[in-house]
Amino acid sequence: MAQHLQREIGTLKKKILSLGATVEKSVRMAVTAIENRDTELADRVIISDTEIDQLEVNLEEDCLKILALHQPVAIDLRFIIAVLKINSDLERIGDLAVNMAERAQFLSGKSPIAIPFDLEGLAIKTQKMLRESLDSLVNLNADLARDVCATDDEVDAINREMYDLVKDAIRVHPEQVDILIPYLSISRYLERIADHATNIAEDVIYMIEGEIARHRS
Length: 217
Description:
By secondary structure, the protein is mainly α. Helices cover about 85% and strands about 0% of the residues. It has helices at about 1-35, 40-70, 75-110, 120-140, 140-170, 175-210. α1 runs parallel beside α3 (about 75-110) and α2 runs antiparallel to α3 (about 75-110). The chain is elongated. The mean pLDDT is about 90.
């Protein structure tokens, strides 16, 4: 029974990592679609969301089956609980990638403007957080997970600054409001992805140490 449980947990780990890789790719493509005004790439992101949704449902069913059949305890139980929560965060990140892809489609039909903030820098920082949160899961590295949590404050600060910069730009160029607002939405989507990456990192800490890391300095 114990060996069978460990085999199923091993399979579960492979599936959550596969979902993570798929979601990470979706975010990367959405960012590239915005930068290159690439509607075809944006379409691919939107289409891939169906696959992400199905993977999420399958993973949840697998977790519930293991809980019902094996009644795991200690580290095994914490792992399955963490996978359930990370699974949900990854699915939400996939949705946010779709939101960004839809903004890319809208912006592709508009004349290019000078963006009044460092969207590329925010995207790089957010994608790094997502990648490192998944790396902390792969390598069971609580220190790396804590680094991800610490970076979230930086992303929040950048996002707040962007609101002020966009408001100033709208005052100077009110005719660009229809273009500036979507860029502000993209900034918000990236900030939400960073929040979900932080959630994943916190769940990794819980899985490794049995410590609930939310709401702590």
